[in-house]
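Structural prep section.
Before we set up the soaks we want a predicted structure of the protein with zinc ion in place, mainly to decide which crystallisation condition to try first. Input record follows.
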Amino acid sequence: MRIAEVAMPVPLEKAFDYEVPPALAASVAPGSRVRGPFGPRTLVGFVLSVRDGEPTRELKPLAKAMDPEPLLTAEQMALARWLAVRYCAPIGECVRSLVPPSLRSAMRPVFLPKAGPLPEPPEAPPAGFELTAGQSASFKRLDALLEARRYAAALIHGVPASGKTEVYLRLLRRAARGGGQALFLVPEIALTKPFFAEFSAGMGLPVALWHSGVGAKAKREAWLGLRAGSVRVVVGARSAALLPFKDLRLVVVDEEQDESYKEDDNAPYYHARDVVMERAKTAGALVVLGSATPSLESYSLAVPGGPVELLRMDERVAKGTPPPVVRVLARRGLERDCLSPELLAAVKERLQLREQVILLVNRRGYSNFVMCQGCSWVARCPTCAVAFVHHKGAAADLQDLFAGPAGYSLLCHHCGKDEPVPAVCGRCGKGPLKFSGVGTQKVVEELRSKLPGARVLRMDGDSTAGEKATEAGVWGAFRDGKADILVGTKLVAKGYHFPRVTLVGVVDADTMLSMPDFRAAERTVQMLVQAAGRAGRADKAGLVILQTAQPAHYAIQSVARGDYAGYAREELGLRRDLRYPPAASLARLLFLGKTEKATRAAGEAVAEALRAGSSDPDAVLGPAPGVHSKFEDWWRWHVLVKAADPAKLAEAVAAAKAVPLPSGVRVKVNVDPYDMF
DNA sequence: AGCACGCCGACT
DNA sequence: GTCGGCGTGCTC
Ligand SMILES: [Zn+2]
Ligand SMILES: [Zn+2]
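Run finished without errors. Recording the tokens verbatim:
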């Protein structure tokens, strides 16, 4: 009997065997879209493999082959299997993620177009462009790697405005010659209409656009065109990493540290950078990663003799421009005002020059950390090294245990450790301790009183649906010069540039360093370097003034010295000691339930089972309530599992999935997560 | 995830 | 006496 192994679009680990009726045998192959009975209903799934043999159980026959040819390529089927293993995700969901919804379950057959005549990109770059020495050296090296037509990966570590984009453009154009295909990954936030228009014009041949907002028809056209090889260049956000290619030769990942490349909401929880590197290996293509602040994931691979080649671009294109300056203002945290006299003076000076200022303030809510105002010690979990969060008795039963004077306690959101609030500093034994950071409201009030007459806009950026419109209004008003100072929670906004901003003030770097997340320092460094790159103009150096009570912190020191390599070395050492990515593999098992009791019980049961069955119980952390302990009526608790490598992690995750959960509780498994809240 | 089957409460 | 609540279990 001919048997087809079929992945159905359900969140189940396994695939299902079906009998292939002789009439369908000719059109059922790996990658074929097929319809078959599934319990009481019928579903459209994808064939993983076909074999002849004796069934070990009674099989139902497939009802139909949907298309004349397999919709998915062999490479895509292999990719689906890789996704399922790498991210501990159900195979059906992995296959599903590779097909746009309009093609996934279409009842009409999908005909694959044949590639027509292929337009060639213009050989010569547009005139009037002289590359800098740094651009030229990077381009030459990368072009040689591209010409070799073998798998290779390179990381361009280039200061902001070093002209990485021009290097990408020339490489992409080269890759698209002779039938080749190229993928340009761009962070969601940078993928604007003007950007796409300029990029398409620069390429000199049709470019497909791919992101979540692209309509069904355009997606279908792009997907089929790439599959056939007639579409040669595609620019897209995260999900473009999952597109089909006929002859992939180059992938460029711009701003490779950008967290929008990680799918953190739905299975498969993939990282686009990992996906394109895997695909480039099979296709024999070149991957170029670019960043001013490389992720530790990439940077740790870009060592001499390592799998990624490091290229540096330290020189800015506009050579006359003075480099941005980062000034560290040490504060003790005792001050009543949140804006130091030095910062205020700098703001005043910029306003007199009719320039603009952005003051960055962290979002509040999860930023209630505990810091000593005497010695700047921060209360951190001894096992996780993550800042404790100062909680107003979250769970009633916890409150009973640790009813301090005011019913507060310290909670580690990684492992769930719960401690009474200390009376004195854990380092100097004195104090006083302070319990919260600064909010935008307070900064605005202070500006009003100390700089009367300055036009101030405030942006809290909770980015809820209702606030999207007002948010755009604020960014627009600031760009149009309707205010001098923007007090906000983020530095970049989709489609906005602020050439008149010459000063970025980071009001409270300590809050960012003390976010309850093992990546807090990495994010702080990236934000500060990006801020420095964004402030300033062609004729004027940008200035970043950051206020911190921890001027000696390794992250702050590295930024002040402009020593990213030093920072990365230090951080990587810590990640190794504490077994966090990229030095180890990490899974976040997020439990979602309608009642807190059941949700927590699920976490407890799984954590207990994992610890009992493991020779390394310290590798299991939690359960702990999420930083967002409840979202849209769902309670959230999580368990973290660490492992030396992905294979060991997969074993632990499999064991976790075998634990029966209380009814009404779901679990989401996120491997190497970025979202820890 | 769906979808059916199951066994207890309050309706015509 | 049935209609329907959603707990539990299975899907080749
Ligand atoms: Zn102290
Ligand atoms: Zn902890």
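Observations: The longest helix of chain A spans residues 596-612.
Flagged for discussion at group meeting.
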